[in-house]
Amino acid sequence: MMRQDAWTEEEDVLLAETVLAFVKEGSTQLRAFEEVGKKLSRTAAACGFRWNAYVRKKYEEALEMAKQQRKKKKEQQSPERDMTLQDVISFLQTLQQRGEGQQEIEQLRQQVRMLEKEKEELEKQLQAVQQEYQAVMHILERARQLSV
């Protein structure tokens, strides 16, 4: 007696061929499981379980070859590029921070200029108040001398 959901040899072969092709092309096994699941009306999880529990053992050598072919293909496509996606993201974030830093510096420079002008005005006002104070003190001193 056979289970209704039992895997056939043809389904195992389709699963293996699809996984090997995806690995060879640089994609993931999970995507291969999703693809096979659609074709066989099974879940990606069922395909992944079948692959890991049974089929993978039969295709261990082929899987290693697919991985080597993927690596070779990747090296041929970009032999001079050593940057990873994370390197690119980091570089772009640094550029963005520099740009924001430049904007902040310019804003701070404008603020400094404004504060310098305000300081000059306040110094002029202080000087005027000091002169008035001296004048009042002089008047008070004269009034004191006259009253004595």
Total tally of structural domains: 2
| Averaged pLDDT | 88
Distance between the termini: 133 Å
Overall shape: it is rod-shaped
User: How many extended strands?
Assistant: 0
> For the CA atoms, what is the radius of gyration?
40 Å
Query: Beta-sheet strand percentage?
Result: under 5%
Per DSSP, the total helix count is 5
Secondary-structure class? mainly alpha
Main beta sheet: none
Instruction: Give the fraction of residues assigned to helices.
Output: over 70%
Low-pLDDT runs of 5+ residues are none
| Helix/strand order | HHHHH
InterPro entries: Homeodomain-like_sf (IPR009057), RsfA-like (IPR014243), SANT/Myb (IPR001005)
Keywords: Coiled coil
Protein name: Transcription factor, RsfA family
Coiled coil: 56-146
Give the SSE layout.
Blueprint: H1 9-25, H2 29-40, H3 44-58, H4 60-77, H5 85-147
Helix pairs in contact: 1-2, 1-3, 1-4, 2-3
Describe the overall structure.
This is Transcription factor, RsfA family. There is one protein chain. With 148 residues, this protein is mainly alpha-helical. 84% of the residues lie in helices and 0% in strands. The chain has 5 helices and no strands. The protein starts with 8 loop residues before the first helix and ends with a helix.
